[in-house]
UniProtKB/TrEMBL annotation:
The lineage of its organism: Eukaryota, Metazoa, Ecdysozoa, Nematoda, Chromadorea. InterPro entries: T15H9.4-like (IPR040264). This is PDZ domain-containing protein. Residues 304-314 have a biased composition (Acidic residues). It comes from Caenorhabditis tropicalis. Residues 280-314 are annotated as: Disordered. It comes from the Eukaryota.
């Protein structure tokens, strides 16, 4: 599991960061790995502008080396930090953002993700599957080329929506689905997202997620085929929502009209069942011209000496 989901784009931002006074001079307050990814920030400095999973590009005038960037940040002064950050997220500013009786977990990144439906986009779903486990809505699958594909990655966990924690009573899965789909009707949602970033924590979480929601292996197809199918599905859904089938109990229900033609030129036989009606027409004008049908057996070993066909004139 990657620190930043592979389907999520990143953007370059410059933020202001300063260590909390109680963290200055202490070891292991902030860790940057060899890939310049921030893997750890102390609790005291957790809300000061950086996000675990940010990739550090430059600290003031220092760049290109994890040790030098860390040393510059550890001085305790105000720093201008240039980072590559997951698109669409903002850092936490206060511990009060967490729901009651909840706190940050060690080895996890936390950030605010804002969801808003793009203008002029017709969609019937967000395109994500979410499993609610232990007060977390875990994103288990994201469909390609949907709104959710640009917001979520597999392994993201939703802690709260618009400041509301996931309920422990009733059906939390239904609550989660109802809240997320509000974005389809133009509502703006603010989500608190949790994602493991420390290597050991991320590996353990990946194993756990694979055990409860294995990755579904599907047949790959061309992107244009997927787009056509998705657009067709959306179109049919929109149309079907507007269709109202008449009730069979309605007083104005349309009933099939019986033929008013009673002339001798048309002779009709009606064969009715519970759901169908068939009409068989005869072109014989005189009933006397109708000839009787003779039933004869064609079974093997028939004792009949008559080799004629089934009709009496054969």
């Amino acid at each position: 599991m990657t620190v930043v989901p592979q389907n999520i784009s990143t953007t370059k931002v410059t933020v202001s960061f300063k260590l909390a006074p109680e963290d200055v001079g202490k070891p292991d307050i902030l860790k940057i790995d060899d890939n310049l990814l921030i893997r750890h920030i102390s609790k005291n400095s957790f809300y000061n502008g950086l996000i675990m999973s940010d990739k550090v590009l430059k600290v003031n005038d220092v760049s290109g080396n994890a040790a030098k960037c860390t040393a510059e940040l550890m001085k305790g002064g105000k720093c201008n930090v240039e980072v590559m950050r997951r698109n669409g997220v903002t850092p936490l500013t206060s511990e009060k953002i967490f729901p009651a009786n909840q706190a940050p977990k060690k080895g996890h990144a936390y950030f605010i993700l804002t969801l808003e439906k793009p203008a002029k986009q017709n969609a019937t779903g967000v395109g994500v599957q979410i499993i609610v486990v232990k007060k977390r809505g875990i994103v288990s699958q994201v469909e390609f080329n949907t709104m959710g594909f640009s917001w979520f990655g597999r392994g993201d966990s939703i802690v709260s929506i618009n400041g509301n924690a996931i309920p422990t009573t009733g059906d939390p899965d239904v609550w989660m689905r109802e809240q997320i789909t509000k974005v389809l009707t133009g509502n703006k949602l603010t989500l608190l997202i949790e994602r493991p970033v420390e290597a050991n924590v991320a590996l353990d979480f990946k194993r756990y997620l694979d055990s409860i929601a294995p990755v579904m292996i599907t047949t790959h197809m061309a992107s244009d085929v997927r787009n056509i199918a998705r657009e067709a599905s959306n179109m049919h859904t929109i149309v079907l929502r507007k269709i109202k089938a008449p009730s069979i109990l309605a007083s104005d229900i349309k009933k099939p009209k019986k033929s008013a033609d009673k002339t001798n030129e048309t002779r009709e036989i009606s064969i009715s069942t519970a759901s169908t009606e068939m009409k068989i027409c005869s072109d014989v004008e005189d009933d006397d011209d109708l000839r009787p049908v003779v039933n004869k057996s064609h079974a093997a070993g028939s004792s009949s000496d008559d080799d004629a066909g089934c009709f009496d004139d054969e």
